[in-house]
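User: Structure tokens for this complex, please. No commentary.
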Amino acid sequence: LRKNVEDFTGPRGRSDLGFVTFDVTADILKRRHGIFDWNVKQLFLYLSAEYSTKNNALNQVVLWDKIMLRGDNPRLFLKDMKSKYFFFDDGNGLKGNRNITLTLSWNVVPNAGILPLVTGSGHVSVPFPDIYETTKSY
Amino acid sequence: AMLSLDFLDDVRRMNKRQLYYQVLNFGMVVSSALMIWKGLMVVTGSESPIVVVLSGSMEPAFHRGDLLFLTNRIEDPIRVGEIVVFRIEGREIPIVHRVLKIHEKENGDIRFLTKGDNNAVDDRGLYKRGQHWLEKKDVVGRARGFVPYIGIVTILMNDYPKFKYAVLFLLGLFVLVHRE
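Assistant:
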């Protein structure tokens, strides 16, 4: 799993808004028994950003998600993706925040049975710049 | 003789003592069921350990009628990606959606936002007026496992009361007449 990221923040009144562009390369089949076995109906994949701020000890924001059904191509090769959901902080904790960790995880949805949440092994640490970006947007 | 007459003969043959015995039997079955339910509530930490999915907002993962098994242990922190069942203040019907965002303070107070997989937007429009986040107190439980289709019976009983009465009547009749 590998991600490359470019990002900046814009001022939006009370809350910082982060803009992140990323690439995702993932090969979901690379596991011992293959994750898509007979009892797996779908995988709900999501890319989440985790970070700490002055206001909140732990923040997690889902930037992007995708449903991968059994039978879909298990290899992901996405480039220049924009986040699907607004990356608002609860406050102004994104500006100058050096340590935002992006992780790819997925929820295994079986035909019947347990619903596990699995975290992918690769993760990327991303710093936000110290100043707001006022000219750019998506 | 027709089948129905044989069955009525059986009932007439039972004297009062046997009838009371059957009623007590019935009471025991109901009490055991209640005890199992309460036990589940304690073990899972949830006030409603089993719920039926009522809408299509989590398709294609869950459909109307699927049964979800919940836990609500305080030691399990709420994290993004989890499927939570929550109630909006003042509303009875619980909603099953996924956690999209969390902001947690050092002392453990957490505010989070949810969204149905099949919905285009997050749930803020569903919350109470002026409410922007959900809190731990709104959570009924986290979905840990599920079984498809089985809950359709409860939905049918809810939507068609005559069906519910028919089921209850037949069940009661069966227990009263059954000799064991």
